[in-house]
Design a protein that fits this description.
Layout (H helix, E strand, L loop, with lengths): L3 E6 L10 H9 L2 E5 H4 L9 E5 L4 H13 L3 E6 L8 H11 L7 E5 L4 H9 E2 L5 E5 L7 H13 L3 E5 L7 H15 L4 E6 L7 E6 L12 E5 L5 E3 L2 E3 L11
Helix pairs in contact: 3-4, 6-7
Length: about 250
């Protein structure tokens, strides 16, 4: 097989946050495959074919990319952020598992800066101690499992980063999650709403959990909830590296 397949992360939005490794793969590619708005970020050029597709066809997209690579194409599957974080890398390997003949292909996963880390950097260091990431979309798992995982993470005093918090079709879900967090964490816990990080529409707001409302988030927002030690320092928010109580000032 002379083709190859790269699964690449385009970062959170700013072109300067695309890694040189990903840029080199895109420059060498004959085909770019991905969700419509992510493919739209790739500049057309001679010798490159763009294959945009809808958001709900990840496995079809993965199979198409693997087929082209098996036929000798140089294919880049693009995701925003990092392709291994709620993105296309898992879909490609799921398709690969179902078709053993493709497993001899030259396949590489190229990391990117995910929205969670870009948001944390803009806010300060809210993920400075143990943390977890939870996708609040119920497309691929039941809402009861999402709530159970949020309760478990909050009960273990993790800082938490939430992806896909609120869409038009499930506007009530995030409100329920906020209620769970208030029950588990108390009203003073700091919450960061980071929308469209690294783009011209970027907006970052930090509030106490008691003041957090569902309307503060949409599908372009990453929500970061601190742990019990997370606190403000000037205009920043950070979580200390130690799990011990803070020393008095």
């Amino acid at each position: 097989m002379t083709g190859w397949l790269c699964i690449a992360g385009l970062g959170p939005g700013d072109e300067h946050l695309i890694t040189p490794e990903v840029s080199a793969a895109l420059a060498a590619a004959t085909d770019v495959v991905g969700y419509i708005p992510y493919v739209a970020r790739i500049a057309p050029r001679d010798g490159l074919t763009l294959h945009p597709s809808d958001n709900r066809v990840e496995l079809d997209r993965a199979r198409a990319a693997l087929t082209m690579a098996a036929e000798g194409h140089k294919v880049v599957v693009v995701s925003s952020g990092d392709p291994g974080v709620f993105a296309m890398a898992a879909a490609v390997f799921e398709a690969l598992e179902r078709q053993p003949a493709w497993q001899a292909l030259d396949i590489r996963v190229l990391p990117g800066i995910t929205a969670m880390l870009a948001a944390a950097a803009k806010a300060g260091a809210p993920l400075g101690h143990d943390f977890c990431a939870i996708n609040l979309s119920d497309n691929l798992k039941p809402a009861a499992l999402i709530e159970a995982r949020v309760r478990a993470a909050a009960g273990a005093d993790f800082a938490m980063a939430f992806y896909n918090p609120r869409s038009a079709s499930r506007s009530e879900t995030f409100g329920r999650i906020l209620e769970v967090l208030r029950q588990q964490c108390g009203p003073e816990r700091l919450v960061i709403f980071a929308r469209a990080v690294s783009t011209p529409e970027e907006a970052i707001h930090t509030v106490a959990l008691r003041d957090a409302t569902p309307e503060m988030a949409d599908m372009r927002t990453v929500v970061i909830v601190g742990n019990a030690a997370t606190r403000r320092v000037g205009r920043f928010v950070y979580t200390p590296r130690s799990a011990l109580p803070a020393a008095p000032p």
